[in-house]
Write a structure and sequence with these properties.
two-stranded antiparallel ribbon, mainly beta, 74 residues
């Protein structure tokens, strides 16, 4: 994610209406709720989250599974 920019997060396959934890580098950022279709969405802003430039690990943790993705912030 370039410095000063935001990225749109979209993932699917979660239990509809259930909580999903959004973690970056093993720190809980916020709790999301899966839509009635099992999707979660959010905006990720490295500057607002005060993430240092470099590699980061994003995880979406639900009751059934954890989705893990890597990203680079600038």
């Amino acid at each position: 994610i370039p410095a000063g920019h935001e990225a749109y997060l979209l993932d699917q396959g979660f239990l509809p209406g259930h909580p999903v934890g959004l973690y970056i580098d093993n720190v809980l950022i916020r709790k999301l709720t899966a839509s009635t279709s099992g999707y979660v969405t959010d905006m990720i802003s490295p500057s607002k989250l005060k993430l240092p430039p470099g590699n980061h690990v994003l995880q979406l943790k639900s009751m059934l599974f954890t989705a893990t993705r890597s990203f680079v912030s600038g």
